[in-house]
Amino acid sequence: MLRLFSFLFLFPFILMGESSARGQVFQVGAGSSSLFQAHGGSLTVRGANYDGWLGIGSLDGLTFGAFLRTQYRGYTLGFGDDTVSFRLPTDIFDSSHYFMGRGIGVAHQRERVSFYGFAGATSVGYGAPFFRGAQARTGIGLFFVEGQLAPKLRAFSRNAFSDRQTSINGVEWQPRTGLRLAVAGGLGANRGYFATSLAAEREWVSVKAAYVGAGNQFRRIVVPQPLLAETDRENILVVVRPKPFLSLTAGHQNFLQPLSRGPAGIRAAVDQLRANLTVAGFRFGAGRFDSRVLGVSSVGTTLSLGRDILRRLQVDANLFHNRPGLGPTSTVLVGTVREVVSPRLSLLQVVTNSNGRPSMSFGGNFLSNRVTVGVEYQTLYVPFRVGNQFKQALVLNLRVNPFGNVQVNAGTFVTPDGSVKYTVSGSEFLYHNGGVSGGPPPTAGRIHKFVVRGRVVNDQGAPVAGATLRIDGEVAFTDSQGEFFVRKSKRKSYDLHVLVHEFLTPGRFEVVSAPERVAAEPEEAAREVTVVVRRLPSTPR
User: pLDDT above 70 covers what percent of the chain?
Assistant: First the structure.
């Protein structure tokens, strides 16, 4: 039955005849990964009024998936395996809540009201960089609606109908620019839920505060994956910038990690204090992280010192000290020297002393039209990890464009036990324009006249290449100048998400500032949006 159900989702692809083939763009990809334990391939197609993909591979057995999205009389229709966002306005600490669904979806927006409906089944999503697939699980129906009650007041409702019901409703009030308040309440998987939040942003201070009351095993949608941690109980994060060169951060957060089985989830709490100071060309940083998981407390301390020398050398020293509730105390000293040889080439040297055992590593970044290579080292703070919560990792990324539109990607990941995992994939773009395949992109076809344009820069004002953003469900990447550009069919505002975990450029980033919504305007009058991120090459997260 599920195979027949899946075939029906592939059927729209079969229906595309010559009349809809003009101006099509195809991307064919395939690859293998020991990191994901996956092998497979995919086909992505984009036309004037539709886009979709088809994937098949081996990942926990034979897995396949497909998705088609098109426009019809002002409605956006989706068929197949889709990623459905389940964000609430009270999610000011984490807006990445979503679930996988296999079915039929429809979205529509008027001037004051927008809605989204879905009918089908939840699914377990399987994905590697070169293919996607899913397996349907439990039948579900969704109805999401938002309405503008007044210029500064918006109401919302999120409803899911399945073997366990979800209905969360609330309002969001924005009395002035830089200040938002929201409240939400209801049921999530038959468990009570209440949340209230406040977000205030000024030039010298930003405050995020929320209180969330979630019952044990609260889930927005009951699916085996992903098990995203929920913000729980009292939470506050304050960032004070009294001077341009000084930043102070203090926060207290609680998390609830629901379990796929069992009556109760896992709760964790993290307190943090951080300070960053730039003076006389030197960068100073200090932080303390106090976490509590399953009755076990751990304390992590960080110290950092860095300086840029003659605009070509970036020298940093970082000290990580961890005192776990279980296990021995650990101290790690990391020294990093990055030399910017040219705008296309930088070299990296990392010296590490872990509990008296020194080691040296080398890396860097090289960027050209045909080859891009990056080797980075990261040290992360993982609150759910028992014992030493500072985790070190090496990331290698390789992109090669040997000829034409062919692209080959490769990456490695060194796990904490020293084993090496890899991912290798390749893809090619093919173009179809009035019966002629291959060659350059077609010039004919519909081109939307409204655009969203902007730049992604770091906290020093330098452009960030390879940054990943999602604008109303459409993914965009920045070029070498940090610029991005998306065309839209309507002149209105769209949701903007900065996907810091999916940047193409190596390293770890966090968002300093970014608008939640951006406006699509006529191309000749479109204003530039600015997103600021901070690079965290060896800072705990």
Answer: 72
Pick 450-533's CATH classification: 3.20.20.20, 3.10.180.10, 2.60.40.1120, 3.90.76.10.
Answer: 2.60.40.1120
Q: Which of 431, 375, 424, 433 is nearest to 400 (CA)?
A: 424
Query: What whole-number distance in Å separates Cα of residue 202 and Cα of residue 189?
Result: 37
Q: Does this model's pTM top 0.85?
A: no
Q: Token digits for 332? A: 């790690």
Token readout for 151 is 């210029």
The pair of three-digit structure tokens given for residue 141, joined into one six-digit string: 């129906």
Cα 262–chain centre separation: 29
**Numbered ranges of CATH 2.60.40.1120 in the chain:** 450-533
Kindly report, residue by residue over 161-194, the tens digit of the pLDDT: 998 899 999 999 999 888 999 999 999 888 899 9
Q: Which of 100, 180, 130 is nearest to 516 (CA)?
A: 180
Instruction: Kindly provide the b/e burial profile for residues 308-323, where b requires at least 16 CB atoms within 10 angstroms of the residue's own CB.
Output: beeeeebbbbbebbbb
Q: Predicted confidence band at 19 (pLDDT cuts at 50, 70, 90)? A: very low
Contacts of 135 (CB under 8 A, 6+ apart): 2, 63, 123, 124, 126
pLDDT, residue 111, reads 80
Per-range mean pLDDT, top range of 193-207, 227-241, 458-472, 527-541: 193-207
* CATH top-level class of 92-122+136-445: mainly beta
All CATH 2.40.160 domain ranges of the chain, comma separated, are: 92-122+136-445
Residue 71 is encoded by which pair of tokens? 């426009």
